[in-house]
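Researcher: Please translate sequence to C-alpha cells.
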Amino acid sequence: MNRYIVIWQQKDDFCMDTATIRNTLIQNIEFLRSPEGYIRAGHPRFFKLFGRDSLIVAWQLLDYDSSIARNTLKALADIQGTSTDAGREEEPGKILHEWWVDTTAKASGDKGGVPRQFPYYGSVDSTPLYLIVASLYFKKTGDIDFFETIRGSILSAIDWAVTYADTDNDLFIDFQRKNPRGLYSQGWRDSASNQDESIESPIELVEVQGYAYAAFTQIGDLLSHYGEGALQKRLEERAERLKEKFLKDFWWQEEKYFYFLLDAYHNPLRVVTSNPGHLLFTGILSQDGIRAVCERLFREDMWTPYGIRTQSVLSEGFDVSAYQKGSIWPHDNWIIAQGLKRNGYDDLYKRVKDALLKIYNDAGTVPELCAVDYKNQLVPPRERNMMQAWSSGALLNMLL
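Model: Translation complete:
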C-alpha cells in the first residue's frame, strides 16, 4: 500500500504522539508539493492546482514554509484571467478555480469526466482569498521584490472584485454560472450535492462577503507600497459600506445567526451552516455578531467531538454522510478556529484543535472530510479523498 494513502479505519484505543502526527502531515504536504512550489489540492483526486485550495494551504503553511505562499501567488498570477470567456467562466483579473493541463488525468479522478474547459475560473472566492494571502505574505516577509513582479496581478484582482464580481451593484460579491456545464455553486461547497438550481442566481454567499471585507481592508499596506493611496482609501470606504449593509441584510433575527446566502431577489436561504463561522477572522462582524456566531456553532446540532458540522442536524436536507450537507471538514473547522483565536476565544479554539486531533487518532489520518452519526461516532462517508492538502495543513498549522 502507498504509505501516503490510508484506508479508513476507526481505532478505538489508538493515540499517537503529536510529534509523530506532525511528521506524517509534513510528509503529506511534501508529497503534494508541485515542482513549481505550490501545494496540489489532494491525492489521488485533485492532484493539480486549485485556486481556493492551494491558497488556503499557503495560508495554513506560512509559518512552516512561506515560499509556498509566494509560489502559489506566482502560479495563480501567471494564469489569471485576462479576457471574458463564458466557456471557462473567465473574466479579467479573476483567479482560477482549477487547472488541468492533462485532462486525461482529470477524467480518471472525476466520476463526471471532463465537463468544462481548462483553465476553469468558476470560483467566486479564489480572488478575494488571493488578495488575503498576498496581504498575509507581505506582512510576514516584506518581500518587496516579489510583489513588484505581481503588481499588475494584485491590481487586476482588486478590479475584478469591485467591477465584475458585483453584477447588481449592491456591494455584495455574487456569482452566476455562465457555462451550463460548469459549477452551479461556486463557493467552497461546490459539490453536486449543493447544485440546487431552484435557487436563482446571481447568488451572494455569506462567507464571501467576509472574504471581500478582509481583502479590501488587509491589502492596504501593499497598496501603500505601490503608491496607490487613492485606491486604498476607496477600498476602505467600500469595505465600511459593505459591512454596514451586510450586518443588516444577512442577519437572521429568528435564529440569531447569519443566512447562508441571498438569491437573485435578495431572498435568504434559511439553513444553519458552518459558513458564517468563516466571518470570524475577517473583521466584518460586530461584537454582538461574533458572540452570536460562536454561540450558534457550538450547539449540539452543529458541534461534535470531531468538530463542527457543515450543516445543522435540524436543517432540511441534512445527511450525516453527505459530502457537504452534514459532514465535517477539517479545513472548514480550521478557518473558523482562526477567527476564534483572533477574537480571544482560546477555549473554543482548543476544542477545535482537539477535535482535529481526535479525527487523526480515531481514523488514522485527517481526510478531506469525515462523517459523524447521531451518536457522535465516526462512520465512513459516501465520498472522500483520503489525502487532502488543506486538511493536512489545518492540523499541521495547529501543531507547529
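Researcher: Any highlights?
Model: Residues 1-14, 107-112 have pLDDT under 50 and may be disordered.
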